[in-house]
Amino acid sequence: MGLRCGIVGLPNVGKSTLFNSLSRARAESANYPFCTIEPNVGIIPVPDQRLDMIAERVKPQKVTPTTIEFVDIAGLVEGASKGEGLGNQFLANIRQTDAIIHILRCFEDDNVAHVDNHVDPIRDKRIVETELQLKDLETLDNRREKVEKQAKTGDKEARKLLEVLNRYEQHIARGNPAHTLEAESEEKEKIQDLQLLTDKPVLYVCNVDDDSVIQGNEHVERLRQEIEPEDAGMIMLAAALEAEIGELDTEEERRMFLEELGLESSGLTRMIRSAYHLLNLETFFTAGPKEVRAWTVKRGTKAPQAGGTIHSDFERGFIKAEVIKYEDFIRYGSESACREAGRIHLEGKDYKVQDGDVIYFKFNV
Length: 365
Known about the structure:
By secondary structure, the protein is an alpha/beta fold.
């Protein structure tokens, strides 16, 4: 399944530096606003040690990780919802993403200009949020005008939709993102096609200086308190430091560099994993002599639909799934050894795939 995360924020907060580190696409990065005019896209492999461990045992011809797509979106300014700066383009690009990675500057540096002349991540966060909310209110208002006409004719479905639209409009007008509204699944389905910008899950990324990458700083703590009522994630990283890590040639060099800093993993690795968690995703594996591969599904996906991510025939002609738990595969070292040990479970169409499952699909079309 495709997964697209938009990297957003005000100009000069570290978006392009971070994107460069992610994809090595070398998006233009400069000390002035709007240096990223067109959204740059990077398809990034998701780091997963489990995939490497399975591959060590199988020794396949090919190893294929699952991927995540990151889009570096042009910097937003106040008034974007009314077309200021690159506002219309910015908001249109966000609408095409599944999640928002909101970069916030949490470091002081007189050599790096700030669009508002001083560092304040709370203000920056609220500027971006306000523009997204204003655009959502415009979207809801446009839809409501059409639905009101249908509701006046006695259309019951239109009346129900109108109630939902009004609920969302009132919630957002009070300064709340759409995703924080307590709504029934049926209500959420009714407004899904609107693709409300504030209905997307958000991961806040605090771009800090090198010395604050472990313990944080005052800016980070203020932001942590600010987002506490939200159902959102937050991580810290130093974009400049990530750029240094990205320049290292080998995995061994990167590991040693991180150890010297007292870090278990890079900030980018944590960001990718956090994005996965944010979108309620899980990984399952297929393993054979030709290829060991990781696949992404939504948590709760049933076996036939998981098979469908590999090929539509797997879902259409699904018979059963032979499932090996990751721990068992690593312990016994192969499919045949797991079979001999009785560690393969036969699962039917109602089986919900679990994170880390190694699956062999049986189908007939």
